[in-house]
Amino acid sequence: MRNERASSERPHVVIVGAGFGGLAAARALAGAPVRVTVIDRRNHHLFQPLLYQVATAGLSPADIAQPVRAVLKGQRNTQVLLDKVVGIDTAARTVRLRHRAIAYDHLVLATGARHSYFGRDEWAARAPGLKSLEDATAIRRTILEAFEKAEFEDDPERRRRLLTFVLIGGGPTGVEMAGAIAELARKALAADFRTIDPASARIVLVEAGDRPLAAFPARLGEEARRNLEALGVEVRAGTRVTRIDEEGVMVGNEKVPAETIVWSAGVVASPAARWLGVEADRAGRVVVGPDCAVPGLPGVYAIGDTACWVDPASGRPLPGVAPVAKQQGAFVGRLIARRAAGDGRPARFRYRDLGSMATVGRKLAVCRFGAVQVTGLPAWLLWGAIHVLFLTGFRNRLAVASNWMWAYLTFQRGARLITGER
After folding, report:
1. What is the DSSP pairing of strand 106-109 with strand 300-302?
2. What gap in Å lies between CA 267 and CA 322, rounded to an integer?
3. What are the tens digits of pLDDT across the range 110-159?
4. Using the 8-state DSSP alphabet, how is residue 270 labeled?
5. I need a labelling partner for 277 at 20 to 30 A (CA). Which of 6, 176, 245, 302 fits?
6. Whether residue 276 is found in the same domain as residue 171
7. Helix axes 376-390, 394-410, angle to 10 degrees
8. Cα separation of 191 and 172, whole Å?
9. Residue 278 is part of which domain span?
10. What pairs with residue 114 in β-bridges?
């Protein structure tokens, strides 16, 4: 294995992960007296909050993704590597890749999270999660193929199973997916088939808690439930999934035959804590200090979904959402830049809660900004404007805004493509 060490006296900052946190850290180091290397196993930055729209044929993959090299092309002190991290040697201060090792002076771990099936990993084959473009296009194919198969199915029971969609997990992803599938069936596909009525599709949202959007204020969670039910979605709150097999889902004591099942019930952190050999919380996140540094490992930081940072105000870890990752990434980047400039003063990360939002369907959304709660059309417009604003790249902003305007005026979805082979 080749070991690549610094060729200059400038400190070398290695950032693992080009998600929200990793890119924020890299951008904060633009112009700093350091060398930066960003490592990711994919060549693109993905705007995950809109991934469900790719899965439900509302947007194309290129609308919500941007090549990492294009994002960072203006930073002369930054290099991008397309590779997979397989471990970290903290004693030698190197990041081990598949065929080489990269030395670091500062290391930022922004490796995100993956699906957690709570010990039932065998469910993954029947209930895929939604974390990547590959996940989204595979789920899109499954959803669209279900309607195509139902069109030529003579057996009524088999047809009902094909037209039943189960979303497991009532967080923002589950809520937004349920609403999007309902609108796809009842609006975009309504006139496209001759044998079946797409509007007869059954969409079931299963949530173990007492209401969807449990992290939102209770009034907004109940508003989301009412909106979903108005779209024809069956909301099964306070009910757990006990089995998933080839025939469908066992929801409590009821068997729900279903062809399409999507998992959004839980996540677990990447193997970063195991790489470092340090303490992790129950979700596998690296326990970090007030400055996002890993205790006992000088120069090593963990951010976003990789980190367990406890908010001193609430005594609870911060949620795994994009604003947390972006703020922590920017903070750590600025902190490393100061360290490189000789400023060794201690620093403490402070999180600014900018609110939370979720869309349920056309002109239906819920938003919270501090004590202010917004629902309905105003919330939907805010949701759309903020998501377009935070997309990476002008082309993506223009493409998403145009697609949404077209869908609003015509009720059509322009990315209804079945690609790949099953």
Report:
1. parallel
2. 14
3. 999 988 898 899 999 999 999 999 999 999 999 999 999 999 999 999 99
4. -
5. 6
6. no
7. 150
8. 29
9. 2-41+83-115+267-340
10. 268
